[in-house]
Amino acid sequence: MKHVSILVPKSNTILSSVVGPYKIFKSVNDFVIQTGKSQQPFFDINLVGIDKDTVLYDGAFSIHCDATIHDIPKTDLIIIAAVKPEWIAEGITANNAFIPWIKQQHTQHNAEVASLCLGAFLLAETGLLDHKQCTTHWAGIDLFRQMYPQIHVLPEKIVTDQEGIYSSGGAYSFLNLILHLVYKYCGQEAAVYVSKLFEIDISRDNQNQFAIFKGQKEHSDTLIQRAQLFIENNVSEKVSVEQLSGMLAVSQRNFIRRFKKATANTPLEYIQRVKVEAAKNALESTQNTVNEVMFSVGYSDTKAFRSLFKRFTGLTPVAYKNKYNRELVSF
């Protein structure tokens, strides 16, 4: 029997990321007993908090934990539930007591640790992610990279798995991580059963199609902000690094260095991301052909545009339009 500790961060937990794993692990227990694979449940599940009770969403919901971290001397698998994006810094401080407990369980008892969505910030604080791969919600990627430059972030991934440390992409992507853990611990038959019962797309492995690029402007370099504004206001034009550095009267080398420091992107990457985001919006909201959209964002090479678009979204322009165009999608 595997002991699972689903951690419930104080005050800012995303309720579904507690209930979802709990229900899936419970359903696996039912499956192994009903199919005769075991006479005992496979997972022994506890909701674990710093305190026994946590109130969420301004009192609309509350979670009563089975145990606190002081009640669990040893566990096999730790699930760090997702936290609200607007309360990351405060949430880390409020839940600081989890950090030494997680580290102790992993280093002394070989417990595996999985973060769901923005729970990756709490996992990162333990140091267990240092120099390892990680993913999180696309909306938190830039902040995560700023806070933890020693971690190898894979923003497109739904699931990462390295040396007993796991992470999931944004929002309900955590379902795919839990499914991954079911497959690892209980095998393909149980994982397929769970994917059908909860209607989880078992083959999904990329979250880029859901990302919205808003530009990284939370910095104080006004010269780079001017460059960003120029790029965004001239999305249909071919903009070069040489043109930008000349316009701002700085050397190319200095401009590239400052741009990367301020935005975490090179100027070329930023130009590409702005153009792809404009193309996505056009494919979602207009009846323009892919070629018309391509020309409207300053590209003329179909193959190059298709390759670039797929690199940032995980889908070809045609596939993206078929999936998200308002006239083509019926709700």
TrEMBL record:
Annotated ranges, domain HTH araC/xylS-type: 225-323
Keyword hit for RNA-binding: no
Membrane-crossing residue ranges in chain numbering: none
Source organism, top-level taxon: Bacteria
UniProt cross-references to Gene3D superfamilies, sorted A to Z: 3.40.50.880, Homeodomain-like (1.10.10.60)
Matches recorded under SMART domains: HTH_ARAC
Keywords: Transcription, Transcription regulation
Protein name per its UniProtKB record: Helix-turn-helix domain-containing protein
The organism of origin for this protein: Flavivirga algicola
